[in-house]
Amino acid sequence: MKVLVTVKRVIDSNVKARVKPDQTGVDLANVKMSMNPFDEIAVEEAVRMKEKGTATEVVVVSIGPAQAQETIRTALAMGADRGVLIQVDGEAPEPLAVAKLLKAVVAEENPNLVLMGKQAIDGDNNATGQMLAALLEWPQATFASKIDLGGAKATVTREVDGGLQTIEVDLPAVITADLRLNEPRYASLPNIMKAKKKEIAVKAPGDYGVDVAPRLKVLKVSEPAKRQAGIKVETAADLVMKLKNEAGVL
Q1: Helix axes 95-109 and 128-136, enclosed angle (nearest 10)
Q2: SS3 at position 62
Q3: Coil, strand, or helix at residue 201?
Q4: Model pTM?
Q5: Are 55 and 172 in contact (CB under 8 A)?
Q6: What is the spatial distance between Cα 35 and Cα 44, in angstroms, rounded to a whole number?
């Protein structure tokens, strides 16, 4: 059983993002970059499947600049077998372009399962997994907090607004990982050294015949407005008066 895991290079979750002075985007100069946290959870789950003997090979794919090889190396150090980088320089591709590229990779690799993070913390689109499943015409299970594989089926517990939902999907399928699926491991030094020798194939969007030109144009990026200080009231009557006359919520 082959598992394909997608990973994305994003601003480290502990770093405060800064907007460029001209408001054309987020400033990435001299900023620490890391693997998207939800993708890290997906990699951990795939490696655990391999350790249990459920999966025989874990392939990691990333779409982004040449530096994304570092992100793939992190996944290889965690226990993945090999990587594929589709190098795209400049502006990151939109979710639909990413899904089309991943569809081509799936056709090439022929995995039994695609594991993805539920969303990337930079764009927060939460769309690529669903789009990929639609393009492949595969079953999908999003926001997974538990995955059990048995035969040609996967039983997935999903986190939904009302609690937990358990569904069963036929394999091959696309599953996206939520926060509570597992706790990713730290790669050991020996595994980090071994990862340097593992294969990373570098491809281009043109190799798959996919156009990654953006369909959307960002007009302006700005930081959220600073929160204004609150006020104190002496009595409940003052509170009601302000809610009614000033806030207009009563």
Answers
A1: 50
A2: strand
A3: strand
A4: 0.87
A5: no
A6: 12
| Residue corresponding to tokens 């607004």 | 161
Over residues 30-59, the pLDDT tens digits come to: 889 999 999 999 999 999 999 999 999 999
Residue with tokens 């991943």: 102
Q: Which two tokens stand for residue 192?
A: 């980090």
C-alpha separations of 249 from 46, 121, 127, 228 in Å: 50, 34, 35, 18
- Are 176 and 139 within 8 A, CB to CB? no
Q: What is the pLDDT of residues 60-110, one digit of tens each?
A: 999 999 999 999 999 999 999 999 999 998 888 999 999 999 999 999 999
Domains annotated for the chain, with CATH where assigned, are: 2-245 (3.40.50.620)
181 neighbors 117 (Cβ within 8 angstroms): no
Nearest to 113 by CA among 194, 187, 169: 169
